[in-house]
Design goal:
This protein is an all-alpha fold. It has helices at about 5-10, 15-25, 35-55, 60-65, 75, 85-100, 105-110, 115-125, 130-145, 145-150, 155-170, 180-190, 195-205, 215-220, 220-235, 250-255; strands spanning about 275, 285. It contains 16 helices and two strands. The protein has a two-stranded antiparallel sheet. A hairpin with a 6-residue loop joins strand 1 and strand 2. Helix 11 crosses helix 16 (about 250-255).
Amino acid sequence: MFPDLAPLMWCSFGTIAVLLQEILSIYPALSPPTLSASVSNRACSVLALLQSLASHPETRTLLLKAAITEYLYPLLNTTSNTKSFEYLRLTTLGVFGALVKADDTEVVNSLLNSDIIPLCLRIMETGTELSKTVATFIVQKIITDEDGLQYICATPERFFGIASVLAIMVAEQPPPSTRLLKHIVRCYLRLTDDSRARTALQTNLPEALRDGTFNNLLGDDAVAKRYLQQLLDNLAVPAHRAPPPSPGPAAVAEVTHPGSAPTAAGTPHPGPGPVTGGSGGGSSQAGPSRRRR
């Protein structure tokens, strides 16, 4: 409706500062979790404006270079299941979803230097159906980029961190929705583009994806069926490189759940709220941008 809203907001004096002030004002309500519905709705309105900045080609890169997304990670790093927190997490995921939707390598490289992947993995493991779907979409779009795939497959910890969460979602009861399952299959399919990941998945792909368990769920979705068949075809091709060694539980937990790694300046992220490990079982404070190794 207002195609120039994003650049107008960015260029208008004090607007971004006010939006950040609104975000910062809810930090005290994150831990302990005391966020009310009215405060959550107000924050979601601010996040909707930030999403417009993330969607617009003129302001997307500016948003990242100004490190505005750094202020949003504490909003994802919450564990309360109340509606006020779920709406907050979902709207925050929408900002990152808008960023990755552009298929911009510069955006992906910026996010690889952050906590978005471990935070998304935690939400994929413990969130609601809708938040899982958006978080899985974000991870899918990141690894669709060549730099994103190389980053994930660079170490066994990163690969198995994602593969283990995908397997958990496949095995869940009730089963995932058709839309979520399609994103899960596309993540697996993209991972097979790396030879070592493909070799590992030949023995680690959930049996439910091989034995027709989801045939009825996929129904008439020809695209999803094609993705699944292509995945199985890719895994049927012998790989010539040895798979990476499987990491221990602690290594997988480190990738799946963000910790309190230091920032470039050596100080921990001030974001509030604990991270309760799903498969890892640990807890930690909201981490800073996780730098690429």
